[in-house]
Design goal:
This protein has 117 residues and is mainly α. Helices cover 66% and strands 0% of the residues. The chain contains 7 helices and no strands.
């Protein structure tokens, strides 16, 4: 979800919020995504993963320190899978943005929060 927010794809983000909620994210975690670094609703590993997604999406690379921290906590296969997913959704969000679809109200209606352009 952070990847889609980072590329400004409100349409894709609105759909993936619903998937995130169905797969264990809380509404508080969705609401606090922009404050992930300090919010108590995220644990240390979640913060690192979100930071990794943001750095990789925005800068197209990550700092050595962040990569090292994730290497200490994730199996190599999991880190590869995470990196591949971030790359995939970063690209997909950018492709979707070309067509400028508006976020659909139905997915967002399930939340007490809405997309901010």
């Amino acid at each position: 979800m952070r990847t889609l927010r980072s590329v400004g794809s409100g349409y894709a983000y609105s759909h993936y919020v619903i998937l995130g909620l169905k797969n264990g994210l809380s509404q508080e975690q969705v609401k606090e995504l922009d404050n992930y670094q300090t919010s108590p609703v995220y644990d240390e590993l979640q913060r690192l993963v979100i930071e990794y997604a943001e750095e990789l999406t925005v800068r197209c690379r990550v700092s050595d320190g962040l990569f090292w921290k994730l290497q200490q906590r994730l199996k190599p296969k999991d880190l590869i899978d995470l990196t591949a997913c971030i790359g995939l959704w970063s690209g997909m969000g950018r492709i979707i943005n070309v067509f400028r679809p508006m976020p659909e109200p139905e997915p967002l209606a399930a939340l007490e929060w809405s997309w901010k352009e």
